[in-house]
Structures are given as C-alpha cells and as structure tokens.
Amino acid sequence: MGSPISWDSRFARRATRITSSTIRELLKMAQQPGMITFSGGLPAPELFPAEAMAEASARILREKANQALQYSTTEGYPALREWVAAQLPNTQPDQVLLVSGSQQGLDLLGKIFIDAGSAVAVESPTYMGALSAFNPYEPEYLTVAMDEEGMVPEALEAVLKQGPRFVYALPTFQNPSGRLMSLERRQKLVELAGEYGVPIVEDDAYAELYYGGQKLPTLYSLDQQMRGGGEGNVVYLSTFSKTLAPGLRVAYAVGPRPVIHKLVQAKQGADLHTGSLNQMLVYEMVKYGLQEQLSKIRETYAARRDVMLEAMTQHLPKGVSWNQPKGGMFIWMQLPQGADAVSLFKKALEQKVAFVPGQPFHADGSGQNTLRLSFSNADPELIREGIRRLGRAAEEELELVK
Amino acid sequence: MGSPISWDSRFARRATRITSSTIRELLKMAQQPGMITFSGGLPAPELFPAEAMAEASARILREKANQALQYSTTEGYPALREWVAAQLPNTQPDQVLLVSGSQQGLDLLGKIFIDAGSAVAVESPTYMGALSAFNPYEPEYLTVAMDEEGMVPEALEAVLKQGPRFVYALPTFQNPSGRLMSLERRQKLVELAGEYGVPIVEDDAYAELYYGGQKLPTLYSLDQQMRGGGEGNVVYLSTFSKTLAPGLRVAYAVGPRPVIHKLVQAKQGADLHTGSLNQMLVYEMVKYGLQEQLSKIRETYAARRDVMLEAMTQHLPKGVSWNQPKGGMFIWMQLPQGADAVSLFKKALEQKVAFVPGQPFHADGSGQNTLRLSFSNADPELIREGIRRLGRAAEEELELVK
C-alpha cells in the first residue's frame, strides 16, 4: 500500500480550472530582500487603526464574548447589516449579507449563477481574483473592450446579446486599470443590462478611495433610479479591506432579496458565517472612526500616486504609456506592441523592483504588453527609487523590440 | 422596468440543491423566550476563555498589527501550521491548510472532488452541514448503515464497490449520533478504503471532547501505520470551534500534499485566506492555554451529559431509547417505529423545549423516528427541566402511535 496515489485522476473535472496562475508563481520570486514591490494590491499597513482596534477588540471580548466567540447567523451581525443598509439608497438590512471578503462574495455568486459552459461577461482587463472565483464553475468568458472611460457601449451590447448569466463590472478605480467609468457609460451599462435582462455584479471595493473630484453614482443606485423603485438588477459588492483592514476578511453583498436569500443558503454550506468577532470589530470601527481613517488614507495614497506619476514621467522611456487614475491603488501601464510584460518583469526583478504583468487580468489571454503598478504600499522614497529601477529595466526591454 | 425579475430562472442548475432544510426553518420557531433548547451544537459560552483572548488580541494588535490586519498567504499563519503539524503523526507544516471553519474544509473538498452525479459515501446518519457543503456540487449519496460501533463493514464494502469519490466519516463522537467508532471498525474502514482506492475524509471536530476512557487512534494515523509511510489516503479535518470558540472560524485540513495543494488553490478563489488576526489569536491561545481549557470543557460537558442521561431515564416514556456517548456534545434518541420526530418537535415547542429532528442527518431521507439532543449548552438545572418537558411531549406523541 506504500505506492503513491494518483490524485489528479481522483479530482473533479472542474479541478483542472482550479489552478495558480503562472504569474502568482512568478510573484513568489519577488519575495527577496531589497526588492521594491509595486505588485500587491496591499493597503499601507502604517495606516491601519491598530491601537483603536486593540482597544475595541479587548472591549468586545470583555463585554460581549458570548456573542463575539459563539456561532452566529449566516446573514451577519445585525448592527453591521443595518449600518451597511444605511449607506446605500433604498436598502433594507435584509438585503445585506456579510461575507468573508469580497472574494467570497464572488465565489458565492459564481456558485449560484454559473453552470458549466455558461457565458459570463467581464471587462477586459478585469480583476484576476474574480476569474479565480468563477473558474471552478466552468464559465465561458465574453470579454468587453474598454477605453479609459470604461466598457465601450458597442462592445458591451454585442456581448449582452449573447445572453451571459451576468456582467461583472468594476466601475470605480478598477483593479487592475485604475479606471473610473464615466457617468454616461454607467447609465448606458445599467440601461442595456436592464434591456437585455442580464444582471450586473458591481464590485466596488475602491469606492471610498477617491482623491479629489466628485463621487460618481454606483450602478446599484442608477439602476434603482431608472426603475423608479423595486429591488433592481444589480448585486453590489463592497468591502472593509481597503478602508479598515483586509486581514479581518469582512465584506458585504447587497441586492435583490431573492439573490441575497440564495447567497445566504450558499454561504451556510460554504462557511456557516463570517467571524463574529471580526464583524463586531468592524462595526465598532466604522461607527466611531471611519471618516478619520478615510481622510488619512486618501491623503497618503493621493500623495503616493502623485510621486509615482511624476517619477514615471521622469524615468520611463519613450513608447511606454500609462493612465492618471483619480483614485484607488493602481496605475495601468502599456508597453509598445511587441514588448512583453513578463520579459520586463524578469528584467525588473534583476533590478530589484516588482509589479504584476497584465495578461492574467485578461480573460481572453490578451494584454501581454500591459502591467499593473500599485502605489499604495510603498513610501515616496521607495516609489521614486523603484520607478528609477523600472525605467532601467524598461529601457533594456524596449531595446529588444526596436 | 419596474416589473419584478424572475431570479429563479436566472440561477445555475445547482441552485436547486442550495436550500435551507425545513428543519432549519422549524428551528427558527424555537427562538422564543422561556425555551430550553437542546438543538444547536453550541459550546457553552461561559467556558470561552474571554479574558485571555481579550488580552491576547490587544497584544497582537499592538505588537503585530502589520501582520494581523494585512492580507496573508492562503495556506495560513506559519506558526499555527507548525503547531497543527506537530499534533499529528508524520506530518509536515506544508500538509496543513488553515480554513474558515471545518465547514469551509467540507465545501472545498466538495469543490475539488465532486462532479455532478459523482457518488459520495456517507454514514447514516451523518453531519447535516456536510450535506449542505456537498450538495451544490450535485453528488449522489451512498449511505452506509451504522450501529453503535460505527459503519457496518459489510454495508461499507458494498458501498465502496460502487466507487464513490470519497467516504466521509466522523469516527469520534459523531455529529449527530455521539457514536465512537471502535478501533476494529476504524482499522477495517482504513483497510477497505485503501483496497478499493477510495479516499477517506475524516471529520474530527470532537476529538478532544472525551470524558474518560482512552483516546482511539484517528483514521489518519491508522492509514499511515498500515501503509508504513507515505502521504496516505486520508484527508483529516479538525477545528478550534469546539475547544476554543466557533465565532473565530478557524479550522484545518491536513492530508496528502497534492490534495492540500489543490485545496489551497480552491481556497484562494473562495476567500483568499482565513482571517489573519483570528489565526494569530488561536495560535496564542493553543500555545498558552489549551490544556486548561480542555480540562474545563471535559469536566463541564461530562457532568451535563450525566445529568441529561439521568433525567432521560427518569422522565422519558417506555419505547424511547438512546445511547450513552463517551464524549462530544450529543445524545441520539430513537422513538418507536411509526412515531415521528417532527411531530414530537412541535409538541415539544408547546412545552418550551427544542431539539433537532433526525431526518435531515440522513442523506437517504430516512430517520423520521430519530432526534438529536445537545447537552453542552444548557446548565444542569435547565437540562433537568428541559428533559422533564420533553418527557411530557414524548408521552403525548407516543399516545398517538399506540
């Protein structure tokens, strides 16, 4: 009985779509001393409200341990459901489900909506983690071309005509592109999706991270306006990971009651409920310290974005282009056609700087000449030095494609 | 656009298997003032080490906030992986995956092993939550008859011959039956599963809750012994929910590296990782206070079990039978054939006492005359009064079947 078991032959068919991207493997190479990394979408840890959380967690565990440490309902901590509902237009607490990070929201949505072979519409590029969440349910992706204003309406309509199970959109400071969908495009998306009867999943993790400019209405709120009431066509996801702390794994899904009800049932089978202490801690924090926390984050990240953009202008060679995001954590960069971001990545590692090559954000396998830079997690001095290094690597790479 | 959307027609096929059991709906009726409830498998909250956790969480958030609040690896907190590995024979930390409750371990195992129509072997009765976890992957269940010593070998072999994807077993103080699989049956199970090439999923949530008697070896360790090394055929699940606190949602899966590797990839898409603070808090607690905590739990639960058994002898009518569990949280009760536990449940509610009818623990829909009583969550005085009330309800119910 000592012979090794061939597990691959025992796994379900979908297991072939449960894989690590080669990029994740590459990124492990970036864990070296002296590396400056713009790769992870990580919040700046020095901004975590650690002391306030230390006090709040101790207080909760002293005063409400029976609730914070016990099993709780799948739907989530009632006070936090109420808080979330109050942030959104025409929303009741029973339309809110607390989830273990937006990633779980995506997994559960995949579970209830995607059959093997179902079409799912995604932006191109889109959030890599959403593809990881949906892939086990074996969808076929329909990709929608974007420009700096978001999905191109003609491309979107062509895709909606093919009847996808839903369209997955990140309209606000998209991961990976940092793009902000314009108001006109938002209206068009909501209108077209309603017309074709295709639900929208709106992933709004970066909503609060705007640096000047006006906040645009969510797809969720626009859909309500257009319908003049009712529960609508949009499932809205957001998170406390970018505003408070990702390590707590608390996020939320909001939407039509039949969808939330089915998500609750799916979550019950998936992990019973999100950590009780975690939800209570988040509630204490949003109730007493969110605005101050947001001000700190916006000020710090805006300054880092500015430093990175300035350094890029100074150090990056001709032929490389990038956008000027109005919020979020990311700058999206294009190499000239023919240049390869993975090849650049390897050169950059030699220079001790890391980023994420853009191809895995593309469900259709395109985007070889794109890459994502995160500006939230390094201080200005390191950003300058890192971009200087990236400039050297980029010059080398561009030599090759001349 | 104001007309309501028919969501049911938009859901995936599997959504029809993502439902709440009628029992869960019934149990909501048990949330009334004055109700004595033996229904939930809830730890006694007065035993939670709340003060120690308050101190530990504050310390972690003051000294290691950058780690406790940040994204972390999918595999889990390294120190806790090491601790878990050290508890198990011949196990390395890279064979350990921290998960968000055993429930998530079950979901991820379903995801990587079950195709629509796959056979899965389960004990009869089995843990209801496992069925909820597996159902979305659309298995067909093969049920294995049990007696007080565990699965009956002949029934087991007949099922293994049908080539299930895995056999799911709760050998130690099973939920719901409280049964302890005998050593001989454990050996037989491991041997037969190896022979037929069927992996075992061992769910061992109650391992530490034994009240006297000797600890029996796990299926995981027996499999290793029989093989004389190698990674084996058993995926082992256990949890900190019953020993420390379920509200933290920290559990673990241990097994052959190819399985753990695939589970890690599946978990990455499902929720990125289990809460960082939660894992660090669990680590502090198991390192410094687990044995004391276990002593308290064992002493308290053993006393409650004894009180419940004594009260049952005193108050329950003839024709009703139950077992004498050597550990865990549950007593398993049988009504005479023809009597119905749901009908008894409704009568019990009138008497202000609740339990869980046994039918939803049966994948084949049998077990109408069975029910589960939990003794962990009520103090002795309430247990006596609750069983007195149950006795009255049972007499009424048995009148009907005479």
Automatic annotation (TrEMBL), chains A, B:
GO biological process: alpha-amino acid metabolic process
Keywords: Aminotransferase, Pyridoxal phosphate, Transferase
Recorded superkingdom: Bacteria
GO molecular function: 2-aminoadipate transaminase activity; pyridoxal phosphate binding
EC numbers on record: 2.6.1.39
Domain Aminotransferase class I/classII large: 49-390
Cofactor(s) for this UniProt protein: pyridoxal 5'-phosphate
Signal sequence region: none
Known partners and oligomeric status: Homodimer.
Sequence similarity: Belongs to the class-I pyridoxal-phosphate-dependent aminotransferase family.
Official protein name in the record: 2-aminoadipate transaminase
Organism for this UniProt entry: Calidithermus terrae
